[in-house]
Amino acid sequence: MENYNLNRGKYFYVVGLSYKKADEEIRGKFSLDEDKKAHLLRQAREEGIDEILVISTCNRTEIYGFAQHPFQLIKLLCDNSNGNLEEFQEVAYVYKSSEAITHMYRVGTGLDSQILGDFEIIAQIKKSFILSREQGMAQAFLERLCNSVIQASKRIKNETELSSGATSVSFASVQYILNHVKEVSKKNILLFGTGKIGRNTCENLIKHTGNDHITLINRTKGKAEKIAGKFNLTVKDYADLHTEIEKCDVLIVATGAQSPTVSADLIPKDKELLILDLSVPKNADHSIVAMDKVTLVHLDHLSQMTDQTLERRKTFIPQAEAIIDEIKTEFTEWLGTRKFAPTIKALKKKLKSLKDAEVDFQRKKIEDFNDSQAEIIGNRIIQKITTHFANHLKENNGSADESLELIQKVFQLDKPNGPASGNKNTKASSQHDKA
């Protein structure tokens, strides 16, 4: 692709930072909430920027837009965040034109995600596009590009297994339960420990098992009650741990203790029990392994499952990239025809003025002149002529510049400054509504 200069001397850029080089603290400084995004878009409009898209997640903050120099976009980010130029320069990336377009495809399809195949970012792109449109900062180029990236994301989801399998320990633990526990929705599940992994596991349990027989225990009861209130679950005191283990069918240990918190003497001898130990270091005592009817699964086993999933996902990268190349080619072809639009529009305007003058002349000469019929015939001829020219330019893209110059010279057309702005009523918003 060329370095597309589509917007009166401006080029398409992306400036940003991500998990690849920026740690959590730096990413936090450049993070933008919805109010800051809206203010940034308004500032961009005031500074003469026509099209711009802002993405900000826990893993990345990026600005896509047209500018004479990328510093215009970098300044917008620094002005509206808690980060400064020096910090940005240490971890940032800047892509121009074709590289910027390719980058958006990779981001939107999960190829650039921290977890390969994570498609959550596409929802952010849709949401950001809608905000840009509402602020009058999204026109034909961004509309077409966003819709193209959305299409690529959907095809990769439907035609590959890039997003299949468990990629987090919390999700892997729930997948293990689903695969090894029959009628899991009827089983009693005890979650011991409500830190970050415990919270995530709890959410995945509710989402994927349909089980409401979940009891929470935490040394600090208030933390467990906060999560329980969100999901309407039962909370028990730490002192009730032994009793609750006797009742449960599945025990998930996600505590942060430095020594084992669950030992063999807490478990009835003949009890069938599945224990998932998600703690670091291990919080289920090794002596439990000797119990005949107890299955103990440690974090390292679940981590291997996630590693295997990611390795398997990597095998689908070539297939995903082929889909991106196919859809990106269609976008590039459309982009190539964008430079024809102003000339075709000017030609149509010139032909219309010639038609109007001729109709006015004939009206004065011919009695009972039929204006409506003349308008219909004239407009159909204009449409046929401009369609012929447009098809010629598309089919002879290599010599299009010469053809454009000849059309402009023959019909004495003014040379356009840039491409037509296009319709601001977008497909991206409707696709977002359907998603």
From TrEMBL:
<dbReference type="InterPro" id="IPR036291">
    <property type="entry name" value="NAD(P)-bd_dom_sf"/>
</dbReference>
<dbReference type="InterPro" id="IPR036453">
    <property type="entry name" value="GluRdtase_dimer_dom_sf"/>
</dbReference>
<feature type="binding site">
    <location>
        <position position="113"/>
    </location>
    <ligand>
        <name>substrate</name>
    </ligand>
</feature>
<feature type="domain" description="Glutamyl-tRNA reductase N-terminal">
    <location>
        <begin position="15"/>
        <end position="160"/>
    </location>
</feature>
<comment type="subunit">
    <text>Homodimer.</text>
</comment>
<keyword id="KW-0627">Porphyrin biosynthesis</keyword>
<feature type="region of interest" description="Disordered">
    <location>
        <begin position="414"/>
        <end position="435"/>
    </location>
</feature>
<dbReference type="Pfam" id="PF05201">
    <property type="entry name" value="GlutR_N"/>
</dbReference>
<feature type="active site" description="Nucleophile">
    <location>
        <position position="58"/>
    </location>
</feature>
<feature type="binding site">
    <location>
        <begin position="118"/>
        <end position="120"/>
    </location>
    <ligand>
        <name>substrate</name>
    </ligand>
</feature>
<keyword id="KW-0560">Oxidoreductase</keyword>
<comment type="similarity">
    <text>Belongs to the glutamyl-tRNA reductase family.</text>
</comment>
<dbReference type="InterPro" id="IPR015895">
    <property type="entry name" value="4pyrrol_synth_GluRdtase_N"/>
</dbReference>
<comment type="pathway">
    <text>Porphyrin-containing compound metabolism; protoporphyrin-IX biosynthesis; 5-aminolevulinate from L-glutamyl-tRNA(Glu): step 1/2.</text>
</comment>
<comment type="function">
    <text>Catalyzes the NADPH-dependent reduction of glutamyl-tRNA(Glu) to glutamate 1-semialdehyde (GSA).</text>
</comment>
<dbReference type="InterPro" id="IPR018214">
    <property type="entry name" value="GluRdtase_CS"/>
</dbReference>
<dbReference type="Pfam" id="PF00745">
    <property type="entry name" value="GlutR_dimer"/>
</dbReference>
<keyword id="KW-0521">NADP</keyword>
<feature type="site" description="Important for activity">
    <location>
        <position position="103"/>
    </location>
</feature>
<feature type="binding site">
    <location>
        <position position="124"/>
    </location>
    <ligand>
        <name>substrate</name>
    </ligand>
</feature>
<protein>
    <recommendedName>
        <fullName>Glutamyl-tRNA reductase</fullName>
        <ecNumber>1.2.1.70</ecNumber>
    </recommendedName>
</protein>
<dbReference type="InterPro" id="IPR006151">
    <property type="entry name" value="Shikm_DH/Glu-tRNA_Rdtase"/>
</dbReference>
<feature type="domain" description="Quinate/shikimate 5-dehydrogenase/glutamyl-tRNA reductase">
    <location>
        <begin position="181"/>
        <end position="304"/>
    </location>
</feature>
<feature type="domain" description="Tetrapyrrole biosynthesis glutamyl-tRNA reductase dimerisation">
    <location>
        <begin position="319"/>
        <end position="413"/>
    </location>
</feature>
<feature type="binding site">
    <location>
        <begin position="193"/>
        <end position="198"/>
    </location>
    <ligand>
        <name>NADP(+)</name>
    </ligand>
</feature>
<feature type="compositionally biased region" description="Polar residues">
    <location>
        <begin position="420"/>
        <end position="429"/>
    </location>
</feature>
<dbReference type="GO" id="GO:0008883">
    <property type="term" value="F:glutamyl-tRNA reductase activity"/>
</dbReference>
<dbReference type="InterPro" id="IPR015896">
    <property type="entry name" value="4pyrrol_synth_GluRdtase_dimer"/>
</dbReference>
<dbReference type="InterPro" id="IPR000343">
    <property type="entry name" value="4pyrrol_synth_GluRdtase"/>
</dbReference>
<dbReference type="InterPro" id="IPR036343">
    <property type="entry name" value="GluRdtase_N_sf"/>
</dbReference>
<feature type="binding site">
    <location>
        <begin position="57"/>
        <end position="60"/>
    </location>
    <ligand>
        <name>substrate</name>
    </ligand>
</feature>
<dbReference type="GO" id="GO:0050661">
    <property type="term" value="F:NADP binding"/>
</dbReference>
<dbReference type="Pfam" id="PF01488">
    <property type="entry name" value="Shikimate_DH"/>
</dbReference>
<dbReference type="GO" id="GO:0019353">
    <property type="term" value="P:protoporphyrinogen IX biosynthetic process from glutamate"/>
</dbReference>
